[in-house]
Amino acid sequence: MSVSMSAATTPLTHLKPAAASQIAAFPTTLSCQTTSPTRSLSITCSSTTLQTPTSAATDRVFNFAAGPATLPENVLLKAQSELYNWRGSGMSVMEMSHRGKEFLSIIQKAESDLRTLLNIPSDYTVLFLQGGATTQFAAIPLNLCNTDDVVDYVVTGSWGDKAFKEAAKYCNPKSIWSGKSEKYTKIPNFDSLEQTPGAKYLHICANETIHGVEFKTYPTPAGENEVLVADMSSNFCSKPVDVTKFGMIYAGAQKNVGPSGVTIAIVRSDLIGKSQAITPVMLDYKIHAENNSLYNTPPCYGIYMCGLVFEDLVEQGGLAEVEKKNVKKGSILYDAIDGSKGFFRCPVEKSVRSLMNVPFTLAKPELEAEFVKEAAKEKMVQLKGHRSVGGMRASIYNAMPLAGVEKLVAFMKDFQARHDHA
Predict the structure, then answer these.
(1) Which has the closest alpha carbon to 73: 321, 401, 406?
(2) Which listed site, 65, 219, 222, 260, has its alpha carbon 20 to 30 Å from 376?
(3) Is the per-residue pLDDT at 379 higher than 80?
(4) What residues pair up with 307 in beta bridges, in sequence order?
(5) What is the DSSP letter of 96?
(6) Residue 86 bears catalytic tag
(7) 231 is a catalytic site residue
(8) Are the beta carbons of 250 and 264 closer than 8 angstroms?
(9) Of these residues, 159, 161, 312, 329, which one is catalytic?
């Protein structure tokens, strides 16, 4: 029986040379059976060929969304080439048993590459979870302390505040510093923090996605047995991090390393196994650790995509090289804002400005909607600021190419030239 398979041509724009060559090399037919991951594929169960892009074209945009966010084009193209038949397995990753040897190889490779990128010591456990970082707001106190234990929170933005409020259901959290009165534009001097004696952990949000505030260094917990816990959702794998300074790092994948649906937790192993009696089984780190993140069906395809991103970051030379690229992109954008003579403004203190999420406003707020609309016409999307703060926000994660930032800056200068008549 012959089954027709056709797909509309999906041209891509802004491609890097490597990505463009992948498109050109991608076959126009797929095979139901292969024996080699690198062998060209041809469909024998179809009466028509599968139409695929053969050259760089025009319908990709520069996506400045805060999450789900842009992904590396070469990763998307590789996933596309493996979508129908993953490396000769005869099935898509989306169809695999999570306990089969094929998926086990995927999740083990993803963990191995992540350990390489962050130099994660062997006495730390890597967990691939679900529920987003928001679910960890409850899981962390449930796993790391008892109901009457004190824990400290440094609140530098909306996400830190949400984490603090959620913890109050399961322990005794103290907000030892909050930037709310100054609209979350700063990070405190660590020496001035009045940490609580006997606190079980000190919690920070390493990069506030909404407000654009990023820790450049990290505080040291005061207590002998206290550990540092960090939500790194929006700057995870954007730069090197000394994992040994933390008891736990956690991150939603959908900002910098994959699609939504995957949450990654890196937990010092001696902290696992002490959960409160009321802890739901799906929030118990010990259960997930003992089952190698396979206690129930995990977000298999999302983990596969994260693995492709980790592999790509390793191939780029690791996180030190990735950080250099991010610094360059951030410098170009912040220089444009600061050099606009007040037409554009970034409210965040310069020393703690995020390299991932860049909030800015216009001196003439009535022009902000027009700015976002005109940018979208130029294929730069998702520049509207978070509804809680307004203005604009450009999220320039690892996968945002330099060309995207350069195009945004050129547009900003043109927009100012046309509207700055003061």
Answers:
(1) 401
(2) 260
(3) yes
(4) none
(5) S
(6) no
(7) yes
(8) yes
(9) 159
Of 308, 311, 309, give the one whose Cα is nearest residue 86. Answer: 308
Question: What's the N-to-C CA distance of the chain in angstroms?
Answer: 71
- Among 318, 314, 298, 317, smallest CA distance to 106 is for 298
pLDDT 10s digits, 388-414? 788 999 999 999 999 999 999 999 999
From the candidates 113, 231, 284, 312, which is the catalytic residue? 231
Which residue among 255, 284, 312, 384 is the active-site one?
255
Tokens for 259, please give them: 């699609």
Q: Which residues pair with 393 in a beta bridge?
A: 359
Separation between Cα atoms, residue 209 and residue 396, nearest integer Å: 11
- Other C-beta atoms lying within 10 Å of the C-beta of residue 215: 20
DSSP string for residues in 249-318:
EEEEGGGTTS-TT-EEEEEEGGGTT---TT--GGG-HHHHHHTTT-SS---HHHHHHHHHHHHHHHHTT-
Q: The whole model's pTM is what?
A: 0.86
Selected residue with higher pLDDT from 46 and 88: 88
Q: Are 403 and 411 in contact (CB under 8 A)?
A: no
List all residues 6 or more positions away from 278 whose beta carbon is below 8 Å from its beta carbon: 142
Q: Token pair for residue 294? A: 């396979």
**For residue 150, is pLDDT > 70?**
yes
Q: Which two tokens stand for residue 211?
A: 């407000």
Tens digits of residue pLDDT in 299-321:
999 999 999 999 999 999 999 99
Which has the closest alpha carbon to 179: 168, 189, 167, 191? Answer: 189
Q: Which two tokens stand for residue 397?
A: 């994660």
404 vs 276: CA distance, rounded Å: 47
